[in-house]
Design brief:
By secondary structure, this protein is of the alpha/beta class. The chain has seven helices and ten strands.
Length: 227
Amino acid sequence: MKVLELKNVNKIYNSSEVKVNAVNEVSLAFEEAEFAAIVGPSGSGKTTLLNLIGGLDTPTSGEIIIAGTDLSQLKPSQLIDFRLKNIGFVFQSYNLIPVLTARENVEFIMTLQQWPEKERNERTEELLKAVGLGDRMNSRPSKLSGGQQQRVAVARALASRPKFVLADEPTANLDSKSAATLLEIMEKLNREQKITFIFSTHDPRVVKMARRVITLEDGRVISDELR
Protein backbone atom coordinates (compact mmCIF):
# COMPACT_ATOMS: atom_id res chain seq x y z
CA MET A 1 0.00 0.00 0.00
CA LYS A 2 1.35 3.42 -1.00
CA VAL A 3 1.66 5.75 2.00
CA LEU A 4 3.43 8.69 0.35
CA GLU A 5 3.84 10.07 -3.16
CA LEU A 6 5.75 13.09 -4.45
CA LYS A 7 5.00 14.40 -7.93
CA ASN A 8 7.41 16.88 -9.56
CA VAL A 9 8.17 18.61 -6.27
CA ASN A 10 10.27 21.79 -6.32
CA LYS A 11 11.44 24.10 -3.56
CA ILE A 12 13.01 27.35 -4.74
CA TYR A 13 14.60 29.92 -2.45
CA ASN A 14 14.99 33.41 -3.90
CA SER A 15 17.22 36.13 -2.53
CA SER A 16 18.35 39.42 -3.99
CA GLU A 17 21.51 37.77 -5.28
CA VAL A 18 20.73 34.16 -6.07
CA LYS A 19 17.98 31.65 -6.81
CA VAL A 20 18.47 28.21 -5.28
CA ASN A 21 16.45 25.19 -6.38
CA ALA A 22 16.92 23.21 -3.15
CA VAL A 23 14.59 20.43 -4.32
CA ASN A 24 14.42 20.00 -8.07
CA GLU A 25 11.64 18.05 -9.82
CA VAL A 26 11.57 15.20 -7.31
CA SER A 27 9.08 12.39 -7.93
CA LEU A 28 9.08 9.46 -5.50
CA ALA A 29 6.65 6.98 -3.97
CA PHE A 30 6.96 5.04 -0.71
CA GLU A 31 5.11 1.86 0.19
CA GLU A 32 4.06 0.64 3.61
CA ALA A 33 6.89 -0.99 5.64
CA GLU A 34 9.76 0.60 3.71
CA PHE A 35 13.08 1.24 5.45
CA ALA A 36 14.55 3.95 3.23
CA ALA A 37 17.52 6.31 3.46
CA ILE A 38 17.86 9.62 1.64
CA VAL A 39 21.55 10.40 1.23
CA GLY A 40 23.80 12.95 -0.45
CA PRO A 41 26.43 15.58 0.34
CA SER A 42 25.74 18.62 2.51
CA GLY A 43 23.53 21.01 0.59
CA SER A 44 22.05 18.27 -1.59
CA GLY A 45 18.52 18.94 -0.33
CA LYS A 46 18.00 16.02 2.08
CA THR A 47 16.66 17.99 5.04
CA THR A 48 14.62 20.31 2.81
CA LEU A 49 13.00 17.28 1.21
CA LEU A 50 12.18 15.77 4.61
CA ASN A 51 10.70 19.08 5.77
CA LEU A 52 8.49 19.17 2.68
CA ILE A 53 7.34 15.57 3.16
CA GLY A 54 6.59 16.31 6.81
CA GLY A 55 4.54 19.42 6.03
CA LEU A 56 7.01 21.61 7.92
CA ASP A 57 7.70 23.55 4.70
CA THR A 58 5.68 24.19 1.55
CA PRO A 59 6.83 23.26 -1.96
CA THR A 60 7.10 25.97 -4.60
CA SER A 61 5.38 23.57 -6.99
CA GLY A 62 4.39 19.92 -7.24
CA GLU A 63 2.25 17.62 -5.14
CA ILE A 64 2.90 15.74 -1.89
CA ILE A 65 0.21 13.14 -1.29
CA ILE A 66 -0.05 11.23 1.99
CA ALA A 67 -2.67 8.49 2.28
CA GLY A 68 -4.63 10.12 -0.56
CA THR A 69 -4.44 13.68 0.84
CA ASP A 70 -2.60 16.41 -1.09
CA LEU A 71 -0.89 18.58 1.54
CA SER A 72 -1.19 21.68 -0.64
CA GLN A 73 -4.99 21.50 -0.35
CA LEU A 74 -4.96 21.78 3.44
CA LYS A 75 -5.39 25.02 5.38
CA PRO A 76 -2.68 25.71 7.99
CA SER A 77 -4.88 24.53 10.88
CA GLN A 78 -5.83 21.38 8.93
CA LEU A 79 -2.18 20.71 8.11
CA ILE A 80 -1.20 20.84 11.80
CA ASP A 81 -3.91 18.34 12.68
CA PHE A 82 -3.08 16.10 9.71
CA ARG A 83 0.62 16.10 10.59
CA LEU A 84 -0.13 15.25 14.20
CA LYS A 85 -2.17 12.20 13.21
CA ASN A 86 -0.24 10.92 10.19
CA ILE A 87 3.49 11.71 10.48
CA GLY A 88 6.01 10.79 13.16
CA PHE A 89 9.22 12.81 13.57
CA VAL A 90 12.59 11.86 15.03
CA PHE A 91 15.07 14.76 15.13
CA GLN A 92 18.84 14.85 15.47
CA SER A 93 18.56 16.80 18.75
CA TYR A 94 15.85 14.56 20.35
CA ASN A 95 13.53 17.54 21.07
CA LEU A 96 12.14 16.02 24.25
CA ILE A 97 10.34 18.26 26.74
CA PRO A 98 12.85 18.48 29.63
CA VAL A 99 10.32 18.84 32.48
CA LEU A 100 8.37 15.75 31.41
CA THR A 101 9.25 12.12 32.12
CA ALA A 102 9.82 9.59 29.35
CA ARG A 103 6.25 8.41 29.84
CA GLU A 104 4.85 11.95 29.68
CA ASN A 105 6.90 12.79 26.57
CA VAL A 106 5.49 9.77 24.75
CA GLU A 107 1.95 10.48 25.97
CA PHE A 108 2.10 14.12 24.91
CA ILE A 109 0.85 13.71 21.32
CA MET A 110 -1.86 11.28 22.39
CA THR A 111 -2.99 13.82 25.00
CA LEU A 112 -3.23 16.48 22.26
CA GLN A 113 -5.33 14.04 20.26
CA GLN A 114 -7.55 13.43 23.31
CA TRP A 115 -6.97 9.70 23.55
CA PRO A 116 -8.72 8.10 26.56
CA GLU A 117 -6.36 7.79 29.53
CA LYS A 118 -6.42 3.97 29.61
CA GLU A 119 -5.46 3.76 25.92
CA ARG A 120 -2.72 6.36 26.39
CA ASN A 121 -1.22 4.45 29.30
CA GLU A 122 -1.31 1.12 27.48
CA ARG A 123 0.18 2.53 24.27
CA THR A 124 2.93 4.38 26.16
CA GLU A 125 3.99 1.31 28.13
CA GLU A 126 3.92 -0.83 24.99
CA LEU A 127 6.18 1.60 23.11
CA LEU A 128 8.68 2.27 25.89
CA LYS A 129 9.06 -1.48 26.43
CA ALA A 130 9.51 -1.93 22.66
CA VAL A 131 12.46 0.50 22.68
CA GLY A 132 14.00 -1.11 25.76
CA LEU A 133 13.05 1.57 28.29
CA GLY A 134 10.34 -0.18 30.28
CA ASP A 135 12.34 0.44 33.45
CA ARG A 136 12.96 4.17 32.75
CA MET A 137 9.42 5.39 32.14
CA ASN A 138 9.49 7.87 35.02
CA SER A 139 12.93 9.32 34.24
CA ARG A 140 13.28 12.84 32.89
CA PRO A 141 15.54 13.47 29.86
CA SER A 142 18.36 14.83 32.07
CA LYS A 143 18.59 11.40 33.72
CA LEU A 144 18.83 9.55 30.41
CA SER A 145 21.79 9.07 28.09
CA GLY A 146 21.69 10.49 24.56
CA GLY A 147 20.85 7.07 23.14
CA GLN A 148 18.05 6.58 25.65
CA GLN A 149 16.63 10.03 24.89
CA GLN A 150 16.59 9.21 21.19
CA ARG A 151 14.78 5.95 21.93
CA VAL A 152 12.14 7.95 23.83
CA ALA A 153 11.89 10.17 20.74
CA VAL A 154 11.28 7.10 18.56
CA ALA A 155 8.56 5.90 20.94
CA ARG A 156 6.97 9.35 20.86
CA ALA A 157 7.08 9.40 17.05
CA LEU A 158 5.15 6.13 16.95
CA ALA A 159 2.60 7.05 19.61
CA SER A 160 -0.29 8.02 17.33
CA ARG A 161 0.31 5.16 14.86
CA PRO A 162 1.44 7.46 12.02
CA LYS A 163 1.51 6.47 8.35
CA PHE A 164 5.32 6.81 8.44
CA VAL A 165 8.21 8.15 10.52
CA LEU A 166 10.69 10.76 9.25
CA ALA A 167 14.09 10.53 10.94
CA ASP A 168 16.48 13.43 10.24
CA GLU A 169 20.05 12.36 11.10
CA PRO A 170 18.82 10.40 14.15
CA THR A 171 22.25 8.90 14.95
CA ALA A 172 24.31 12.08 14.47
CA ASN A 173 24.69 12.89 18.17
CA LEU A 174 25.13 9.31 19.38
CA ASP A 175 28.21 7.20 20.10
CA SER A 176 28.64 4.09 17.97
CA LYS A 177 27.14 1.67 20.50
CA SER A 178 24.05 3.83 21.12
CA ALA A 179 23.61 4.37 17.38
CA ALA A 180 23.79 0.63 16.70
CA THR A 181 21.22 -0.09 19.43
CA LEU A 182 18.86 2.58 18.10
CA LEU A 183 19.10 1.27 14.53
CA GLU A 184 18.48 -2.30 15.65
CA ILE A 185 15.34 -1.18 17.49
CA MET A 186 14.04 0.80 14.51
CA GLU A 187 14.74 -2.06 12.11
CA LYS A 188 12.93 -4.49 14.42
CA LEU A 189 9.91 -2.16 14.64
CA ASN A 190 9.93 -1.89 10.86
CA ARG A 191 10.16 -5.64 10.36
CA GLU A 192 7.72 -6.77 13.06
CA GLN A 193 5.17 -3.92 13.05
CA LYS A 194 5.49 -2.87 9.38
CA ILE A 195 6.31 0.72 10.36
CA THR A 196 7.63 2.82 7.47
CA PHE A 197 10.86 4.71 8.24
CA ILE A 198 12.38 7.37 5.96
CA PHE A 199 15.81 8.62 7.03
CA SER A 200 17.89 11.60 6.01
CA THR A 201 21.45 10.64 6.86
CA HIS A 202 25.21 10.79 6.37
CA ASP A 203 25.72 7.74 8.60
CA PRO A 204 27.06 4.69 6.70
CA ARG A 205 25.50 2.44 9.35
CA VAL A 206 22.03 3.71 8.46
CA VAL A 207 22.79 3.37 4.75
CA LYS A 208 24.03 -0.20 5.22
CA MET A 209 20.83 -1.21 7.03
CA ALA A 210 18.44 0.55 4.65
CA ARG A 211 16.63 -1.55 2.07
CA ARG A 212 16.22 1.45 -0.24
CA VAL A 213 18.77 4.22 -0.79
CA ILE A 214 17.79 7.43 -2.57
CA THR A 215 20.70 9.70 -3.50
CA LEU A 216 20.25 13.44 -3.96
CA GLU A 217 22.62 15.88 -5.61
CA ASP A 218 21.82 19.57 -6.11
CA GLY A 219 18.22 18.85 -5.19
CA ARG A 220 17.73 16.10 -7.79
CA VAL A 221 17.34 12.36 -7.36
CA ILE A 222 20.35 10.86 -9.13
CA SER A 223 19.76 7.25 -8.02
CA ASP A 224 17.08 5.20 -6.32
CA GLU A 225 18.40 1.77 -5.33
CA LEU A 226 16.35 -1.12 -3.95
CA ARG A 227 18.19 -3.84 -2.05
